[in-house]
Amino acid sequence: MKALRIDKEPAYQCQLVDIDEAQFEAELAPEGDVWVDVGYSTINYKDGLAITGKSPVVRKPSLIPGIDLVGRVRQSTHGRWKAGDEVILNGWGVGENHSGGLSQVARVKGDWLIEKPAALSPLQTMAVGTAGYTAMLCVMALQANGVKPEDGEILVTGATGGVGSVAVALLSKAGYQVVAATGKSTEHAFLAELGAASVVARETLSEPGKPLQKERWAGVVDAVGSHTLVNACAATRYGGVVTACGLAQGMDFPASVAPFILRGITLCGIDSVMAPIARREAAWARIAGELDLSQLAALTQVVPLSGAMDAAQAILRGEIRGRVVVDVNA
Ligand code: NDP
Question: How far apart are CA 89 and CA 290, in angstroms?
Answer without folding.
Answer: 20
